[in-house]
Amino acid sequence: MTATAAELLEVLWGRASTAPASASQLRVLHILEHHAGITLGTLADSLASTPPSTSRLCDRLQAAGFVERVTSPEDRREVHLRLSGRGRAFLADLRERREREVRSVLALMPAADRGALLTGLEAFCAAATARTRGDVREVDGRTA
User: Fold this and answer.
1) Which of 58, 55, 76, 77 is nearest to 68 (CA)?
2) 20 DSSP 8-state letter
3) How many helices and strands, by DSSP H and E, does the chain display?
4) Residue whose C-alpha is closest to residue 53's, from 90, 28, 21
5) SS3 79
6) Deepest in the core among 22, 51, 83, 94, taking most CB within 10 A?
7) 39 φ/ψ angles, rounded to the nearest 5 degrees
């Protein structure tokens, strides 16, 4: 059931996406959104990738106008990355379209089921956040 739900969510998001960005590029945009000014090396580590591969990925995003590179005034070899205004607008638009697709499905569900789903998703978000941050904490008596 979990795999089916994940696949259906991908289908819904795919319908909402006219994205000129690949999944890897979207991941970079999301990281930059939350970590403005991150260095290329740190971004490569976050992606479990090599600096040259990450640099090429950022080259494409910069060419699309989604990412800006800023050379550090202290060390010219150090490059900091941030989303451009166009990158922020792109993510906002993508979120809106994805949300619209999900809302159209939720509207077909009975209210009680929507409430149960919301409760479950809140618990999922808490556990996923803990996992992505490397936190070990207890959720409902279980270690997350």
Assistant:
1) 58
2) S
3) 6, 5
4) 28
5) strand
6) 83
7) -85, 160
Q: Where are the alpha helices (DSSP H) in 35-110?
A: 40-47, 51-63, 85-106
pLDDT tens-digit profile of 65-98? 999 999 888 888 888 999 999 999 999 998 898 8
Q: Are the CB atoms for 38 and 81 separated by under 8 Å?
A: yes
> Using only C-alpha atoms, what is the Rg of the chain?
18
Helix or strand run (H / E) with residue 63: helix 51-63
Q: Output DSSP code: residue 74.
A: S
The one-character DSSP state at 109 is: S
Q: What is the DSSP string of 131-144?
A: HHHT---EETTEE-
Rounded Cα distance, 66 and 62, in Å:
6
